[in-house]
Amino acid sequence: MIIHDMPYFLEDEESVNREFRKIPDGSTIVISGFNISTAPEYLMVELYRSFRDHGHPKGLFLESDSLPGSPGRGIDLISEQIAKNSDDGFIEGVLVPFLGWSKNLQKLVATNAISAYTCSIGSVSHLLREMSAGRPGLLTTVGLNTFMDPRNDGPALNDRAREEQKITSEIVRIRGRDFIFLTAPKPTVGFIRGTTADEMGNISMEKEGIYGSVFTMAQATKAAPERGKVFCQVERVARFGSINPKAVHVPGPLIDYVTVAPEKYTWQTGSIEFDPRISGGIIPPRARNRTSKITLDARSVVQRRAAIEIASRIRKLKRPIIANFGVGIPAEVPAVLDMEGVSDLVYSTVEAGPWGGIPLSGEDFGVSVGPFAIIPLPDQFNLYEGGMFDLAVLGFMQVGKNGDVNPSMLPGKITGPGGFPSISTGSPFLIFAGMFTAGHADISVKNGLLTIAKDGTESKFVNNVYKVLFRGDSAMTHGKEVIFITERAVFRLENGGLVLTEIAPGVDLQKDVLEKMEFDPGISDPIGRMSPEIFQPRRMRLSSTVSRVHNGLFS
Predict the structure, then answer these.
(1) Helical (H) or strand (E) element with 298
(2) How far apart are CA 516 and CA 509, in angstroms?
(3) I need a labelling partner for 26 at 20 to 30 A (CA). Which of 11, 47, 55, 550 fits?
(4) Is the pLDDT of residue 288 over 70?
(5) Which neighbouring-strand residues pair with 492?
(6) How many Cβ atoms are within 10 Å of 463's Cβ, its own excluded?
């Protein structure tokens, strides 16, 4: 019995390339992938191979809700080959929220070889949902009064994009409130990835570490008025009916083509081929999952001080909390909470979709070891933008005198905002965690003191940040609490700007803090000292801080 005439199973590279040659030049292709997680690497590599061998398709506009690649893989590998082979005609432009893991893509953008646009991960994922429903664009408050505001830079990242205006935004006023109205081309081709496809094309994702926006991208591609083609890369094919209906993430009738990818293109993350603890196949026992080794260095000081703040928040709210942890130093804070035995009271979330467990960092960022839940990325950003969580721990590259924050943008460094704007917009309490200066430094912890043998050469606390992604005055207007934690000093944001509240033991206030800032902060009287426990190679006894909180009740 013929169940359904789709999808076509593409058995080899030639059959894949044959179908790729049918993709019209100038098409808009949406590609799944939070770094390597759910990135259809095989489809991407073969698409470029088709162009190299036959000259088609070309002039493509690529859209992604994050970045489908990591160093040397996915979009980074293709960007490297484009530059090497002078294949300027393959990609016309991109819409990506984050370019940080792809130096080669950044080079194409910096040289105007392609047009480039950006906005928050949440905005792209929600825009794709709007396309799926046939609506003309996305109304959002994310990005207002930042560089992404159309009254400032808008979504364009380079001069070519500013000239072409393929992605547009404008201010719309509704019931006395300003919104950004964002539009982008609807994809006519979708590249997605799953784990298993049955004979009907039903797609499950049991070995993936996240769901990402895979289903949303398939919907956006198939939506009217131009119902596009969806290609899905999988690891294996199963008999129809062998996938539990509740495990089907994308129904088969939305899939046009399925191909089984070689194993090297099915890794869970940039450095992990497969770990069942990441995809929920195994939930590690808490005792064996707990980190036991204590490393004391400048980064760990920041993480430990952030953990103290989180424990204090739990005690203040008298219940467990929901928290987001950003990339870099923030992503490592949950490991400290786990070591301290308080992680059961912190429901950690990562923007790609995991809840609980220990988030990974670096090119593995986006997944967690031992999560208790994994939800689709657009739903995760509903959580953030709707303020359905208690706090966020985020990184920073620059902090302005009025509390403005630039997490990732510098002249010549085109990284994009990632999920930062959505998360910082929705969070009622923000912990910005990072090093006090930038550049090579020699900072260590010795005998309970912070020792600065050589400091970083670049000030991160500046009069005016290069690009504003978080507005301090807006945070104060909306009643947010904001704290800045570094290895040597802690600041709180008040209506008058930053106030220095704590310094580390061993630090000279004038020489090590004030002289390394471009502005004079307010100084609390008296100024406090960071807890001595932070600088000792033992646990900080945070479990006693929150010991009366149990099962969400304060006894």
Answers:
(1) helix 298-317
(2) 10
(3) 11
(4) no
(5) 483, 499
(6) 11
Cα angle for residues 431, 433, 434 (degrees, 5° grid) = 160
H/E stretch holding 174? strand 168-174
Class of domain 286-539 (CATH, top level): alpha beta
For 187, which DSSP code? P
Domain ranges of the chain: 8-120+186-259, 286-539
Q: What sign has the CA pseudo-torsion 96, 98, 104, 106? A: positive
Q: What confidence tens digit (pLDDT) does each residue in 86-109 have?
A: 988 999 999 999 999 999 999 999
Query: Which tokens is 57 given?
Result: 């398709």
Q: Rounded distance, CA 301 to CA 450, Å?
A: 9
Distance between CA 326 and CA 350 in Å, rounded? 7
Share above pLDDT 90 across residues of the chain, in percent, rounded to a whole number: 90
Calculated CA dihedral for residues 465, 468, 473, 478, nearest 10 degrees: -150
Our CA angle for 190, 19, 22, nearest 5°, is 85
What angle do the packed helices 214-222 and 121-132 form, to 10 degrees?
40
Distance of alpha carbon 301 from alpha carbon 529, whole angstroms: 13
Distance, in Å, from the CA atom of 445 to the CA atom of 504, rounded to the nearest integer, reads 10
If phi > 0 it is left, if psi is from -120 to 50 it is alpha, else beta; for residue 403 that is: left
Spatial contact of 99 and 186, defined as CB atoms under 8 Å apart:
no
Q: How many CB atoms sit inside 10 A of residue 264's CB? A: 10
- Rounded Cα distance between 531 and 525, Å, is 17
Residues known to be catalytic: 351
- Point out which residues pair with 257 in neighbouring strands: 8, 231
DSSP output for 346-359: EEEE-TTSEESSEE
pTM passes above 0.85: yes
Which residue, chain included where needed, has tokens 């208690």?
Answer: 390
pLDDT tops 90 at residue 490 = yes
In terms of CATH, what superfamily is 8-120+186-259? Glutaconate Coenzyme A-transferase (3.40.1080.10)
Neighbours of 89 (CB within 10 A): 14
Do 286-539 and 8-120+186-259 fall under one CATH topology? yes
Q: In what order do the strands lie in the sheet with 236-238?
A: 236-238, 196-198, 203-204, 248-250
CB 227 within 8 A of CB 219: no
Six-digit token string for 554: 């304060």
Burial (0-12, 13-18, 19+ Cβ within 10 Å), 72: middle
Q: How far is CA 246 from CA 195, 202, 203, 204, in A?
A: 15, 11, 11, 9
Of all residues in the chain, what percent carry a pLDDT higher than 70? 96
- Return the pLDDT at 550: 52
Q: How far is CA 464 from CA 32, 190, 458, 459, 547, in A?
A: 36, 41, 14, 12, 42
Mean of all residue pLDDT scores within the chain? 94
| Residue of 314, 311, 344, 41 lying closest to 191 (CA atoms) | 41
Cα torsion 452, 458, 460, 461: sign: positive
